[in-house]
Design brief:
By secondary structure, the protein is α/β, with parallel strands linked by helices. The strands form five sheets. It has a seven-stranded parallel sheet, with helices on both faces. Helix 8 runs antiparallel to helix 10 (232-264) and helix 14 runs parallel beside helix 15 (417-427).
């Protein structure tokens, strides 16, 4: 939509702001369509509802939340209005109560702002100290990433100076590394000025005036429908919010980021993701390009570039890829080989160092099946009903394998533990499963006979240690994403299952056939060597690449 020439006004310093905000809009629309499908089904039920009562959200939206967070917390109300208007159903939205809870929330919010301000002042003092007491030290990197992802390749650089934009990572770095890398912790807002605020105000008014002139003439908005519902009004509200609030915010960030880079003079900008609902990632890359500073994204996950992906507009100039397979995909969206580097991943270097875990063996009395459980992301990928369907499919398949113990692997820090435990208890026999959460995958693989995976990098890790892998595509979203794995299947690296029946059949085949396990192990090894660069020393290759780019 933002590619429409009508939105040419929505740009600043040659940066298309619509492209920056597109991921946030896509996220909002995904949740919106999820609820319109859900509430629409209720409206058409045979019960003949005459009135819907929707209680307003009591969620407090922090200042640091995403651009459309305010709209997202009230999305059920917005959807209910659309559905109820269409079906002529009365809608009641009770007023939220103003009570002591709101006072408590205000106190908590104010205390957070106070702590953040104190923390910011402390970092300013630390930054000044490092600037005065330690001389310039090699390549200067401006990085927005977690320290755990940064530390491995920094250790391979002869000399490096680091500026981190994820300021909370100061707690994870350690004083020794702060001194070693002349480390400073910054936020682009620290570089604002009265002049910047005036520019933002003037440019923001231009955006608003231009939007007012075209908002009723954008054909793709006027004709927007989902099922039988017209959603033009709701999309227009979201776009208006993006233009008014997101326009100001983007110009503010661009100006501040440019001032920050003028003062800090980084040799390279490195981002965790160059396409994100958090606009500062892409803005860093775009501003770096204006100033002639190279920017790089280091691949941290599976790269889906198919239909519906908003990852097909990365802003980084260079991308450090997992290997040839990712590079081929990135070439299709406009990158040249000069901008792509087959690095592998420091995260996966451990697999090149451990001894091969052979799958070519007689499976013992107890068969250990490692199952990678999907996380809940309501309205985006997976909801709680999907998790139940996924687990019921796994339970049905594994129950038919004598002596099977299913290890249910949850992500560390999972926020829905109580829900998952309830689902597992209801779905599996008590002695047929156990839960793994904090244990590293590399430890779980040692006693694993078969891996059942959803769309996750755990799939790649399983192939690296020669485990027989069955990809479960029983959920619609995973069936769609499974298209990306067709090449894996064609080359015999894994098995694909789109139904519970197929999953059960594949599981039986792997358990019963030593030759199949041997074949899967062999083909997976060939596939991973051919398509990925997980051969160890990725940190060293990344360090060499950084040095070559900066030169």
């Amino acid at each position: 939509m933002f590619d429409d020439s009508l939105f040419d006004f929505f740009s600043y310093k040659g940066i298309k702001l619509g492209e920056i905000h597109a991921p946030a809009l896509q996220k909002y629309l995904s949740i919106f369509l999820y609820y319109i499908d859900f509430i629409g089904q209720l409206a058409k039920s045979p019960h003949g509802f005459k009135r819907f009562i929707v209680f307003p959200s009591l969620e407090v939206v922090p200042d640091t939340s995403g651009l459309l967070a305010l709209l997202e917390v009230n999305i059920v109300e917005e959807v209910a209005r659309v559905v109820c208007t269409h079906h002529d159903i009365a809608l009641s939205i009770p007023k939220s109560r103003i009570n002591k809870l709101s006072i408590g929330r205000k106190i908590h919010s104010n205390f957070f702002v106070f702590k953040r301000a104190i923390f910011g002042e402390f970092l300013e003092i630390l930054n000044l100290f490092m600037s005065l007491c330690k001389s310039h030290n090699g390549i200067r990197l401006l990085i927005t990433d977690y320290w755990r992802n940064v530390e491995p390749f920094l250790a391979e650089l002869p000399k490096a100076e680091v500026i981190l934009m994820d300021r909370s990572e100061a707690f994870n770095v350690g004083l020794r590394n702060i001194w070693k890398y002349r480390m400073r912790f910054v936020h682009s807002n620290n570089y604002t000025s009265h002049k910047v605020r005036k520019i933002v105000s003037n440019q923001g008014q231009i955006f608003i005036d231009s939007w007012e002139q075209i908002k009723n003439n954008v054909e793709c908005i006027q004709q927007a429908r989902f099922n039988e519902y017209s959603i033009a009004s709701s999309i227009k509200k979201a776009i208006s919010h993006i233009i008014v609030v997101g326009g100001d915010g983007a110009v503010f960030d661009i100006e501040n980021t440019q001032l920050m880079m003028y003062k800090l003079r980084p040799d390279i900008v490195m981002v965790r993701a160059s396409v994100s609902t958090q606009r500062h990632f892409s803005i860093l890359c775009y501003v770096a390009r204006i100033l002639g500073i190279p920017s790089m994204e280091v691949q941290h996950g599976l790269l889906y570039l198919g239909p519906g992906s908003y990852a097909d507009h990365p802003s980084a100039e260079y991308i450090a890829c997992y290997g040839p397979l990712a590079r081929r995909g990135l070439r299709k969206i406009g990158y040249t080989d000069k901008k792509l580097f087959d690095i592998g991943s420091p995260r996966f270097d451990v697999y090149s160092e451990i001894r091969k875990i052979s799958t070519i063996k007689k499976i013992s009395k107890h068969i250990n099946i490692l199952c990678i459980i999907p996380g809940v992301s309501l309205g985006l990928w997976i909801d709680t009903y999907d998790v139940i369907d996924f687990c019921e499919s796994i339970a049905t398949s594994t129950a038919k394998v004598s002596g099977a113990i299913t290890i249910m692997k949850l992500r560390p820090g999972c926020t829905h533990q109580a829900f998952y435990k309830q689902v597992f208890k209801r779905t599996f026999n008590p002695d047929s499963y156990r839960i793994a959460q904090s244990e590293p995958l590399v430890e779980l693989f040692v006693n694993t006979d078969v891996v059942i995976s959803c769309y996750s990098t755990a799939l790649l890790e399983s192939l690296l240690v020669h485990r027989p892998v069955i990809y479960s595509g029983i959920l619609p979203i995973y069936e769609s994403l499974g298209i990306e794995l067709i090449e894996y299947k064609k080359e015999g690296a894994l098995l694909l299952a789109s139904t519970t029946k197929e999953l059960t059949g594949h599981l039986f085949s792997v358990v019963e056939s030593t030759s199949l396990r041997e074949k899967l192990s062999s083909e997976a090894t060939i596939f991973m060597k051919k398509h990925y660069s997980f051969v160890g020393e990725a940190s060293s290759r990344l360090a060499d690449t950084i040095q070559s780019i900066v030169k």
